[in-house]
Amino acid sequence: MAKEGKGDNSFGIASFVLGIVGSVLGVLVLPIIISILGLIFGIVQLKKEKNAWAIWGIALSAIGIIISVYIIWTIVTTVSNLSQTIEMCQADSSLPGCSAILGSLGVQ
């Protein structure tokens, strides 16, 4: 129940908490969803009543989204580069390091 004279900060607090969780756990895929929810709650709170909870929630949620997108992009790039390297090594196993790579994968 909101106190008289004070607005309801529930969306702002929820945004702040979700922003922290999304930023700290940004290395997983799920936190991007948590951060997006935090961003939405922060925007809703700003439209209702501008306060520090909403601003911090939006900032932390944005950081969580950036971290998650960066991690996902890094993983996709690494997997793509690895698959290209394996294809090159399968085409010409005499290239430097290819025997070790193919040997560790059990492919010859």
User: What is the distance, rounded to the nearest whole angstrom, between the alpha carbons of the first and last residues?
Assistant: 68 Å
Largest sheet: none
Radius of gyration (CA) equals: 23 Å
Oligomer: single chain
- The number of strands is 0
Name the structural class.
mainly alpha
What percent of residues adopt helix (DSSP H or I)? Answer: over 70%
- Tally of individual domains: 1
Average pLDDT score: 84
Q: How many helices?
A: 4
Judging from the principal axes of the Cα atoms, what is the shape?
A: rod-shaped
Describe this structure in words.
- It is a single chain.
- With 108 residues, this protein is mostly helical.
- It has one domain.
- Helices cover 76% and strands 0% of the residues.
- It contains four helices and no strands.
- The chain has helices at 10-24, 30-48, 52-91, 98-105.
Write the layout of secondary structure elements.
Blueprint: H1 10-24, H2 30-48, H3 52-91, H4 98-105
Short recap of the structure:
This protein is mostly helical. The protein is 76% helix and 0% strand.
List keywords for this structure.
108 residues; mainly alpha; 0% strand; rod-shaped
